[in-house]
């Protein structure tokens, strides 16, 4: 078995005139948390959609769980779970009904039990019988992620899981992501927040103007940065500094 | 692929259960699709019926086929609304990233439309019976009526699917309902077309709803259906096929 859950090579995608991905390459190790970092409109969602078989690339290859997304989309769907950028919950159903629906669609043997376990794990037991339309943003996101966990897919995609959440809800999501990874699930997440990537990810890739301009572990990325600056206080570079430094260099070239 | 195919019907069953819940939890839908046609039937029979000369002894008998079509027409706006919200909220995206047959979600909505219409039509017919509707039709004629109503539902549902899947806004998704609401009104559903001014009459006689109404009326009163049934079927099958092709095309593009 290969050690990579996801391999992407030379991925290109345009929407009519707009050339969004110009040759994206990266690999995601099995069981790791991978953060795709990029500003708004850089093409993160486009990559997620290609990897989850919702969109076809113009060229390049994408292999998920050893399966090519173009050649074996149905098999890829068996190994993944997607939590899209905007919470995709059924607002008219209750939280419990939402989870039961997904468990049934995944053909699990005991949908009610699966739903109750997830409600419990995500702190939604008290709200289980309320319609999702009455949930707060944080609760909705939790339900959304819980829905993705029904069925224990080996690879989970989270597209900007914390955008629009208050700090408390954000920390809860981080906790869940870490739990997932300790259980051996591969987590692919996108984010606009440098600190989020810094907090969570084993591997980070920065998407900028259609390409991955840098990737590696946080330690690798820190090495790219010029040695600690001599200031009145010695300061460790944050990812933000690295990001800005790299972008700045690129723009000068 | 094998396993996915095997689950098509159970997946569609889950989708059906889901959108039937949507309908039962939406008072608005129930009122527009079931209560409003009943109110119209009461109004026409008890307020206007005395002044309308149809040549039948019992105006409810004349009116019922048109009322049934109105109930179906009223439901299409909701079908396209439900599809639109599923696209908008990313629900279809979620389903499409799961190991489910791609068309199960769409067929779930279509089936919902057929099942919910069947329920509301049965309720309306029961009310009509209370109001004095009587039919000498046998079981075969009733089956034929059911078939034509199902086909009419299916036709309008596929049109609604195009609107719901391609709309940019909620209002856009609902707009399709207006022209469809008017078709039964300008047909022989309420009054015979011979009483209409010539321009309107020409439209009323050649639009699809009139042959459908005439066929159902003939079947329910044990009269010969003549050519009307073939014209009615041709309209429904023709429009269904075209709408189906376009709806599938939009669905694939969206999904
Ligand atoms: N369906 C589409 N049609 C045309 N342009 C699109 C479409 N989807 C995304 N885009 C454009 O492609 C770019 C990348 O979008 P996206 O992948 O959503 O970025 P991100 O998720 O990083 O914010 C944006 O400029 C966006 O406007
Ligand atoms: Mg995005």
TrEMBL record, chain A:
The keyword Hydrolase does not apply. Keywords: ATP-binding, Nodulation, Nucleotide-binding, Transport. Coiled coil: none annotated. Gene3D superfamilies: P-loop containing nucleotide triphosphate hydrolases. It comes from the Bacteria. One of its GO terms (molecular function) is ATP hydrolysis activity. InterPro entries: AAA+_ATPase (IPR003593), ABC_transporter-like_ATP-bd (IPR003439), ABC_transporter-like_CS (IPR017871), ABC_transporter_ATP-binding (IPR050763), P-loop_NTPase (IPR027417). Residues 6-234 form the ABC transporter domain. Belongs to the ABC transporter superfamily. This is ATP-binding cassette domain-containing protein. It comes from Chitinophaga oryziterrae.
UniProtKB/TrEMBL annotation, chain B:
Its main location: membrane. PROSITE patterns: ABC_TM2. Residues 28-254 form the ABC transmembrane type-2 domain. GO terms for cellular component: ATP-binding cassette (ABC) transporter complex. The chain crosses the membrane at residues 27-50, 62-84, 105-133, 139-165, 172-191, 229-251. The keyword Electron transport does not apply. It is found in: Cell membrane; Membrane. Keywords: Cell membrane, Membrane, Transmembrane, Transmembrane helix, Transport. It is a multi-pass membrane protein. It holds the Pfam family ABC2_membrane. Belongs to the ABC-2 integral membrane protein family. This is Transport permease protein. It comes from Chitinophaga oryziterrae. The lineage of its organism: Bacteria, Pseudomonadati, Bacteroidota, Chitinophagia, Chitinophagales.
